[in-house]
Amino acid sequence: MSRFIEVPARMLPQETLDALLEAFVTRQGYDTTDTTGEGMHGWVAQLKKQLERNELIIAHDLELEMTEVMTLAQWRSFGRDIADDEEEGDI
Q: Can you tell me where the transmembrane regions are (predicted)?
């Protein structure tokens, strides 16, 4: 059984999805200074579009019970890191 599962955005309550996307914006270091009047809501709206285009994924770690938003590049890199740790016996 895989330790990680992909969670479709449509399965999450709207406020949970928004909170995950806001955490992603903060973690990625997006410039959240507001020059358009949209602020964080504008970033969240853009990220929702990226989710729809399958440019981002929501991954849940069954072992740690944590859910994160990741770019596909982050997901692929994360998967390689986990595989390396498992080979070395770190996990």
A: none
